[in-house]
Each structure stands twice: as structure tokens, then as C-alpha cells.
Amino acid sequence: MCTVVLLRRPTHAWPLILGANRDEMGDRPWLPPARHWPDRPRVVAGLDRLAGGTWLGVNTHGVVAMVLNRRGSLGPRPGVRSRGELPLLALEHADARTAAQAMADLNPAAYRSFNLIVADHHEAFWLCSRYDQVTRGHEPPVEVHALPSGISMITASDRNDPTSPRVRAFLPRFEATTPPDPEADDWRSWSSLLESRVHDVEAGPEGAMTIVTDHGFGTLCSSLIAIGQPAGGKARVVWRFAPGRPGKVPFKPVMI
């Protein structure tokens, strides 16, 4: 159950701040963000070595895309495509709106259910496919929701969903804390939340931001991304990446 937190401030010098933890089985092989795809030279993303896609990436236009499993849909399923293709498809586009419109036309039956985030300095969208949660043959279309200003937090359910123990525990903390300052390279406020292993008794370890379990599932890596207002016609993207459990492994710059 991955987690993404977005702060949208449309008139700010840094209109989009994103924090994301990737939760997955520890034996699933992956590589840190880089230009892993020769046919996609504008894309920088982490590589899922098992299926060849990614969970999170950016392009040189300043578009960021991330896919999350929905509840009850962890792992691959025979006969459907890998959801790791979805961020790569979204990152073929030069702005978030065009990407969201293109992704909305996907056949939902081709993938297990997903949440997909697509954002840039100007707009941000949450796309949702609930295909696994409905009767086959009655497929709802991929939903497209514009994300408002302020904090949005998405896990394996809906935006700011209070049924998620993680959202209940951490959304108020993200809303109350001082945002990161990309200009000063100060990410401490959000990095401390992303690495938190605090959870309530009912939710158990998987209700924390950083997950550690005894069955191999846990938080494998973490990202902090800022998208700035363009300068000189060029996108401004800052990415700090922890290639392991945040709090145990430091965040380091990613070359965009």
C-alpha cells in the first residue's frame, strides 16, 4: 500500500510538493530513478525490474506521475497488463491535463484497479480505476478528479479517505507542518513524517507511514519532489530519493 502526499499552491514559486513512500514485497527487484528506457529519453523514473515499468517518475517537461494499487489488488494477475506501464504512458505528454485526458481513455479491464497521480506546476489529477471492485462485464470508466489546492493524501483508497488509518493519523500532521523549502534544500518537515513508524494498535504496523513487517512486505524507498514555476521556458524539478527505508537511508539528489 504505497502512499502519496501532494501540496498544491498554484501561485507559489514551487506550486507542487510531493512526498511518496513505496510499499512492496522486499524481494521484488528494482532500481533507483534514472533514464532506464532508451526509447523514453525524457523520462526519469524508478525501474521495476520484474515487469519493466515504474511506480513513480518525472519527465523533462515537469510532469510527475505515480501509480498506486487499490485495496485488495496487490501484485500481478494473469491476463492483465502491469500497472507499472501507466506512469510511463502518462509521462509521454508535456502537461498534466493532456496526460490525464489520455489516460482516462484506457480500457479499465486491461489492468488491475489503480490510483494514478498526474501533476505539473499548473494542475494535478487523481485518476481512479475500480475495475477489480465491480462485476466483470460492468466496467466503470476510469475516473478523473482534479486535485484542489492544499494537501491531498492517497493510499489504496480515495483522496483523503478517513477509512484509511494512515490518512486519519497523518493527514492532519501534513496539514499542520511547515512545508519543505526546495530553494533552501530543506525537506526536514516532510522527511520526518515519511519515515514515521508511529501507528495505532488497531491499524498495526501497516498503518504507519513507513511500514516494517515480519512477512517481507514494507517500505522499500521514498521520494520528495518539487515542481517549480518554469524559468526561461524550462521546467524546474527537484527530486530527493531515499533508496531504502526512509530514516534508515538518507535522501539524495536525483539528476533530472
Explained architecture:
The structure is a single chain. With 256 residues, this protein is mostly beta strands. It has one domain: Penicillin V Acylase, Chain A (4-Layer Sandwich). Helices cover 13% and strands 33% of the residues. The chain contains four helices and 13 strands. It has a seven-stranded antiparallel β-sheet. The protein has a six-stranded antiparallel β-sheet with strand order 10-1-2-11-12-13, covered by helices on one side. A hairpin with an 8-residue loop joins strand 3 and strand 4. The radius of gyration is 17 Å and the shape is globular.
Q: How much helix, percentage-wise, in residues?
A: 10-25%
- The helix-strand sequence is EEEEEEHHEEEEHHEEE
Distance between the termini: 27 Å
Q: State the helix count.
A: 4
CATH superfamily: Penicillin V Acylase, Chain A
Structural class: mainly beta
Strand order of the largest sheet: 3-4-5-6-7-8-9
CATH C-level category: Alpha Beta
Quickly count the domains: 1
- Report the sheet with the most strands, covering strand number, pairing sense and barrel closure: 7 strands, antiparallel
Q: Which oligomeric state applies?
A: single chain
Proportion in β-strands: 25-35%
CATH topology: Penicillin V Acylase, Chain A
Report mean pLDDT, rounded to a whole number. Answer: 92
Radius of gyration: 17 Å
Draw up the topology in text.
Elements: E1 3-8, E2 16-25, E3 30-34, E4 43-48, E5 56-59, E6 64-69, H1 85-90, H2 96-103, E7 114-119, E8 124-129, E9 143-146, E10 150-154, H3 165-176, H4 188-194, E11 217-231, E12 234-242, E13 252-253
Antiparallel strand pairs: 1-2, 1-10, 2-11, 3-4, 4-5, 5-6, 6-7, 7-8, 8-9, 11-12, 12-13
